[in-house]
Amino acid sequence: MRSGEPVPTVLEGVAAAPGIAVGRARVLVPETLTIPERRLTPAEVPEEIARLQRAACSARERVQAIHHALAGVELADAIFRTQLLLLEDPQLLDGVARRIRDGGINAERALQDEGERMLAVFAAMPDPYLRERRSDLAVAVRELQMCLLGLESARIGPLTEPTVLIAVDLSPTEIAQLDRASVLAFATDAGGPASHAVILAHSLGLPAVVGLGRATALVHEGDLVLVDGGAGRLWVRPSPEVVRTHCQRAARERQRTNALLRLADLPAETRDGRPIVLRANLERADEVERLRDHGATGVGLFRTEFLYLNRDEPPGEEEQLQHYRAVLAGVKPQPATIRTVDLGGDKLLVAGQRRSEANPALGLRGVRLARGRSPLSTVQLRALLRASPAGRLRILLPLVTGVEEVVAARTHLADLRRELEAEGHRVADGIELGVVVETPAAVALIDRLAAETDFFSIGTNDLIQYTLAVDRDNEAVAYLYGAGHPAVLRVLRSAVEGARVADRPIGVCGEMAGDPLFTLVLIGLGVDELSMSAGSVARVKRILRATDWAEARSLLAELLALRTAAEIGDTLGREMRRRFPEEFESAAPVP
User: Fold this and answer.
1) In the chain, what are the domains?
2) 133 confidence band (pLDDT: 50, 70, 90)
3) What's the pTM value of the predicted model, to 2 decimals?
4) DSSP string computed for 251-277
5) I need a surface site. Which of 142, 375, 477, 493 has the fewest CB within 10 A?
């Protein structure tokens, strides 16, 4: 570097959306809302509640306009539909109105208090993905608050040149309103891997890095910056050499992406012919059409929780029936694995289903909700059985810790089948019943569970959490959470070996399944199936097709002999970079 040139700064964050972009920075100053507070007379309360209702209508109109503007953008529909549901949710609006009446306070203050209460409920959810959905509520509350205050929702002014946005955070509304002809990429201080900023960046094809912590403090307006979305890095005032190196890599990445698309129709098997079924995880029935484009074979996990959130009553049998039929018919003749609802305690946000729990992750959730043949479970199982003739149904039970839970579910299904057939409904034969292996208890009992189970699916997200006794969203201990921990590898090996001895197929449906870094580990373990987001299938398939099963087993044996997570991480990273230098190029040091 020549004397006098600025020293480049590199910030490490979360790889949000792949791609490389170089441009001048627009730094967005955080906008803090000032919430007024005033006391109301009894005569003023009706008009204040009416003002709240008018603001809710205005907020819905704003969100609907953005929703329509993004018609056809992948996954945007789900995000803005959820925001609309929240803005129509009686729980939110009635809660605010109740605070106005009971406390005699203005709508802005009441909304602030009720929003904080509901956000705390979301923050306590045991499922990391669902916990991230509190961002939906935060955005809806903010949009409603801005309507009450008479403020515009956008804070990004006109852009006169290609720009990289630097912000503390960006809401889905702000991202959706970006001028995609001028915005090259964005980088934020806040945000996690499942945030809506990440989801929309992927859908819009915008390179992005989140969770940088101090980008807004270090970047000045107009600075040259480089966003490396695949590596999770932000370069501030990069040297010409850094820019040239990254632009060359971006060109190679485009070539790799085109090559991956050509893998969609090729078999998912190792180089020496061992097949591994690659399926997709879904949250919505209308996502089914994407699967074939990416080369996924059926649905390995359909999360039904999203049918239950943000509503006054749980979904009825007929409503659920339509969703399940759509999924089954959409992937026929391939199977669709539908997990029974995995929300419980004060995390089930529907009327009559709340209760306070000191430790929700270990409380009333998963299969425990079905105890005593609860109406919640009965309605869902009836809908699933009625939908079964539309395709190949596999029912998956979450958070199983004992054989009796599976026996009870199988007996309940048999009784419901007789009941439905007596009512004149047709129920398909050959419905499979599976268990999510996500607790140490399920691993220890896998031979006993196999006697009542047709298949297993390892939920690595919770299994890692329960094995290591670590809440990965607790910043104080998140460093202990990791799929490469030696205890996790041993637990996974025990689960797979137990299923193999019992002659039951076993797959993986957690985040680990879609991470190319762990593809060889899972192949070496001998799993039969991997289920992941549709967009991850091609990358996993490429590694799978370039690997011999014997090589994967040899690597796994080497990793299992190591003592610490750090040793395993270093060895695995080094080996994957050696075998697949282009795939893991972004993980290597960049000059």
Assistant:
1) 9-31+155-239 (3.50.30.10), 42-149 (1.10.274.10), 268-586 (3.20.20.60)
2) low
3) 0.69
4) HHHHHHHHHHHTTTTS--B-TTS-B-E
5) 375
